[in-house]
Amino acid sequence: EVQLVESGGGLVKPGGSLRLSCAASGFTFSSYTMTWVRQAPGKGLEWVSCITSRSRDIYYADSVKGRFTVSRDNAKNSLYLQMNSLRLEDTAVYYCARDLGTGTTFGYWGLGTLVSVSS
Amino acid sequence: QSVLTQPASVSGSPGQSITISCTGTSSDVGGYNYVSWYQHHPGKAPKLIIFEGNKRPSGVSSRFSGSKSGNTASLTISGLQAEDEADYYCCSYGGSATRYVFGTGTKVSVL
Asked: How far is B58 from A31, CA to CA, in rounded Å?
């Protein structure tokens, strides 16, 4: 069974940093593109970033480019999101998702971790 | 990055059919056959219900179907059930620059 468990969320001041983790199990982690998606309170889903299976290709939404860095450790079956220069508008639940296998679909999702940016 | 436009809410009675639209542009929905739909019960993990426009993942009820015409994709839920009450989001691949764009989301209510 595919399992994705996010962690690392919490309360941080504007301008601060946070590192999210996503622990994967139940599949061959090194074979799949992984993605971060977020949902601000009362808002819809927003794609944040994705990283291909061997980290060759990495993409970011304009809203986080230059501030967030996605990475993965295939030996540890883990996905990461380093978030720097956090803004109030980065407050959201952050989900990690695994590609279905098609390269363009978020097939499996975790429960998310809440990041709150507040002074 | 722009978002895809969905109706804020759609409702129906048990057993009825409802359709949710998802309108984008020729740079996303109209340009690729990579529209997916997700069901999200608050507090739970989003669930994939349709991918590549009209394909259902294993285990997803055949009551869910997808289609596309031009720059608008649609999700139809037939035989509406109480458990279908949730938020629904479309998502489209938007090319090498945009990558992915989500819809604004639709709250489905079962009357």
From this structure: 20
Q: pLDDT of B18-31, one tens digit each? A: 999 999 999 999 99
| Segments of chain B with pLDDT less than 50 | none
State the best of B20, B100, B101 to mutate against chain A, taking most chain A CBs within 10 Å. Answer: B100
Asked if B45 and A95 come within 8 Å (Cβ–Cβ), the reply is: yes
The amino acid occupying position A26 is G
Q: What is the pLDDT of residues A4-57, one digit of tens each?
A: 999 999 999 999 999 999 999 999 999 999 999 999 999 999 999 999 999 999
Contacts of A110 in chain B (CB under 8 A): 45
User: Can you give B37-62 as a three-state secondary structure string?
Assistant: EEEECCCCCCEEEEECCCECCCCCCC
What sign does the dihedral A86-A87-A92-A94 (CA atoms) show?
negative
As a dihedral over the C-alpha atoms of residue B105, residue A22, residue B98, residue B5, rounded to 10 degrees, the angle is 0
